[in-house]
Design brief:
Blueprint lengths: L1 E7 L13 E6 L2 E5 L5 H8 L5 E5 L5 H4 L1 H11 L6 E6 L3 H7 L12 E6 L4 E4 L2 E7 L7 E6 L9 H6 L6 H7 L4 E2 L5 E2 L13 E4 L7 H6 L5 E5 L7 H6 L5 H11 L4 E4 L10 H7 L7 E2 L5 E4 L15
């Protein structure tokens, strides 16, 4: 299971009900953060995500997206954390993080932290998935991220295997992994005789701050979930362009073109903090299933059983 927890859904400044940008993603017990706005560690306590973070991916280093790492690192150091942590940021911005993580540290007693710069198109491999960076368009170097799993073997048909006289045990595993097996009577059994077609892996995309751009649509093709910023509504489309942000309708258009399975909007301007329904009404004619994130909202994405399909092209 993948569980996503929205820790902060406001843009630029916090409100009474919305903290600054941060998303926690837990997959198979491994906790990853995407952005770490001011107050993130308190939100993690409030919503029970835990602090055992292995990686933090920063979409960009505007203050509302990274200042929370200062207090978070200090708290972990005081708790005598020993486990290393990796911080990832757009190319050319590591120096800012290097300065930030030392603030409030009065001595050298700090756990190992490695800072990595990512270029668009690069990927961070982890056990069973990878996080791919893609270039988005904002006022400073910025990235979106796609968590992508490979396809999984198809379902093993135990009843069919029994009818074919395949003994349970190691031969089942060999067939599941795609290898033909030979039985004692000399018959050769092919994997296709007892194993269904490969099942697709999951894809979760986080846009970060950006104007609507082709790279996001491409990264989000057939995504299980697209989390896209929607700072403004239709009345502020000019301001959105000037500040390199998106409107809710523009985010919905990206999701529609990408044929994403689910769209959640976040990063709301203060004027919409208590009334995201306005944004939903503008987005729904384009992408009917759109949702508005709120602090503490969780989304569970189970492993899909449907067969892997060829990638779909973004729709015009």
């Amino acid at each position: 299971m993948i569980r996503i927890t929205f820790l902060g859904t406001s843009a630029a400044a916090p409100t009474v009900t919305r903290s600054l940008p941060a998303i926690a993603l837990k997959r198979e017990g491994v906790l990853t953060l995407f952005d770490c706005g001011e107050g993130t560690q308190r939100q993690m306590m409030r919503y029970g995500t835990g602090f055992d973070v292995s990686d933090v991916f920063f979409t960009h280093l505007h203050a509302d997206h990274f200042l929370g790492i200062i207090g978070f690192v200090r708290t972990l150091a005081m708790a005598e954390r020993a486990q290393p942590m990796n911080l990832y940021c757009p190319k050319g911005t590591a120096r800012i993080l290097e300065q930030a993580i030392r603030l409030g540290i009065l001595d050298d007693r700090i756990f190992p932290i490695e800072i990595h710069e990512l270029a668009p198109g690069s990927a961070v491999a982890r056990d069973g998935y990878e996080v791919r960076a893609f270039e988005v368009q904002h006022k400073r170097p910025a990235l979106g991220y796609a968590l992508v799993e490979p396809s999984r073997p198809g379902k093993f048909d135990v009843e069919r295997a029994a009818k074919l006289g395949i003994p349970s045990g190691p031969l089942f595993g060999q067939l599941q992994k795609g290898s033909a097996v030979t039985l004692e009577d000399g018959r050769t059994i092919l994997p296709s005789e007892v194993v269904g077609p490969p099942r697709r892996g999951r894809r979760i995309v986080i846009s970060g701050d950006t104007i609507p751009c082709e790279a996001t649509a491409e990264a989000s093709r057939s995504a299980d979930l697209l989390i896209h910023e929607a700072t403004f509504g239709d009345d502020d489309v000019v301001r959105a362009r000037q500040t390199f942000h998106s409107t809710a309708a523009q985010a919905a258009e990206i999701a529609r073109r990408a044929q994403a399975r689910r769209l959640v909007l976040t990063h709301f301007s203060n004027r919409y903090a208590n009334a995201p329904g306005i944004l939903l009404r503008q987005a729904r004619p384009i992408f009917p299933g759109v949702e508005a994130a709120r602090d503490g909202m969780t989304i569970d994405i189970p492993l899909p059983d449907e067969p892997e399909q060829p990638p779909k092209n973004a729709q015009d």
